[in-house]
Amino acid sequence: MSVSAMFVALQGALTADQDIREEIRKVVQALEQTAREMLTLLQGVHQGSGFQDIPKKCQKAREHFGTVRTQMESLKTKFPADQYYRFHEHWRFVLQRLVFLAAFVVYLESETLVTREAVAEILGIEADRERGFHLDIEDYLSGVLTLASELARLAVNSVTAGDYSRPLRISTFINELDSGFRLLNLKNDSLRKRYDGLKYDVKKIEEVVYDLSIRGLNKEATGGVGGEK
Description:
Mean pLDDT: 91
Shape: elongated
Order of helices and strands: HHHHHHHHH
Strand content: under 5%
Number of helices: 9
CATH topology of the largest domain: Methane Monooxygenase Hydroxylase, Chain G, domain 1
Largest sheet: none
CATH class of the largest domain: Mainly Alpha
Radius of gyration: 21 Å
Oligomer: single chain
């Protein structure tokens, strides 16, 4: 093969790769739009009247996840199944955002931490790497860390809305989450930096709980109707 023919072949391979990436970008843009719509919807829980509308907002968010599953099915067809990590950077950010949104919805519904398997089911992808397009463990953990920051904000806004029991429950949850992360030996630099931010979320929530204690509102929160979810 001549040098010229070699480079023509290389250009063909580059063009095919660029075409794949462009197709992936189109689907990812649609996923990002759906994620933005869900985020806008769920941000309403931070408003005073939003606490009464939490079940309705969660239900609407669940409907959006139906769209996400359809978009994920499209994404799976845009690249060879065995080249997941070659193109992973294209959807990594939006997938982490979607993990956070799924985790936030599940927390608002049941005040529990969603499992990686449950998130994968919500998004319409696999939890097992061997089965194809899957939810990477580090993407799952990044989404959970974003949840921690969102709950720290929710704790503050709960007090403003007069819900004094919620920050106490959030505090318990975040401390359990922090304990869980301490069991991990994180090597990923990006994930490690994200985890370092968790201590600030813990501190922020502790300050909210301490303020409730000083004002005597924690007793009100843990007694009677105030102690219910």
